[in-house]
From TrEMBL:
Belongs to the class-V pyridoxal-phosphate-dependent aminotransferase family. Keywords: Aminotransferase, Pyridoxal phosphate, Transferase. This is Alanine--glyoxylate aminotransferase. Its cofactor is pyridoxal 5'-phosphate. It holds the Pfam family Aminotran_5. The keyword Transferase applies. It comes from the Bacteria. GO terms for biological process: glycine biosynthetic process, by transamination of glyoxylate. Substrate binds at R347. The modification N6-(pyridoxal phosphate)lysine is found at K198. It comes from Candidatus Sedimenticola endophacoides. Residues 33-338 form the Aminotransferase class V domain. Coiled coil: none annotated. One of its GO terms (molecular function) is alanine-glyoxylate transaminase activity.
Amino acid sequence: MAYSAFNPPVRTLMGPGPSDVHPRILAAMSRPTIGHLDPAFVAMMEETKGLLQYAFQTENALTMPISAPGSAGMECCFANLVEPGDTVIVCQNGVFGGRMKENVERCGGTPVMVEDTWGEAVDPDKLEAALKAHPQASLVAFVHAETSTGAQSDARALVELAHRHDCLTIVDAVTSLGGTPVKVDEWAIDAIYSGSQKCLSCTPGLSPVSFSERALEKVRNRSHKVQSWFLDLNLVMGYWGGGAKRAYHHTAPVNALYALHEALRILHEEGLESAWERHRHHHLALKAGLEAMGLRFIVDQAHRLPQLNAVSIPGGVDDAQVRARLLGDYNLEIGAGLGALAGKVWRIGQMGHASRAENILLCVAALEAVLSDSGADIHTGVALAATQQALGA
């Protein structure tokens, strides 16, 4: 049997990730592969660490990409900071808080859950009550930007509460890094992880992480070995540590790291504040068009992520059929709801390189056309004008 080369269709990616990849990043991936201990590659690794420090707004020495997707970044944080018997307070307001709980349990810890309604931010008062009720707790974990709902929580306030009760913090910034403010040092976050495929507009498969000295002190003084050999920071740092001499740990994904380096260069050239403002501006344009059409956001504006928008599916509309039409007729991908929101919402992302005026206009026009064809109860003929007005076009 003969197999032909795979040539993927050109899509506009406006789901919850991956996002559109900048052409400069795709070009970077095609550069010649060199050894992962080559002096030239080691020099690039050092630049990548510095660029990640800029993206995270931190001076943490241990700031690096894990050679695996964001879920591995999450597991790295928990595997290194949670020991058997530890009590960990986990705030859950969507799918990914539930994954934090799974990690605590697999590390032998005891999770104490602080539950909030999906689509709402984590309630600091509920966290404070849990901290008072469980003085033995040593860690607080929460999702800064909940990918399943598009809700953003007040990371600064939650970290302050945790520290007031002598707890370290683990923060999920998979969807927020590069799209909305993430200030690791100013907010005193102890451990944080993200992903390459969201607002950084890189290909999937890498997870930037950063650990404070306070967190590393706990890692150094563990009573038990880290349960994961691959994610043990004591070993990984032999490769990602400072200086020209590196100890072999694993064969790093060389070309993927070229891509991340280029993605971070693009972010640095634009400037963090400009990137945050671009995502906000295009969110407001998307919002204007969708609301003119009659669609409703599930997250209050005060807690809404600009880069990931969860909107309610109109009554009587077939979720999967609409997404299939968008993909088939317009090469446009939007995301389905997860967990309790499956079949109830669409998740529309405009992250990184996807956060462009032409993408917003395409999304609004295509969605109106498909919904109108489906007989949905929406307002027609007004959404595109509202979007253009908000864009300043």
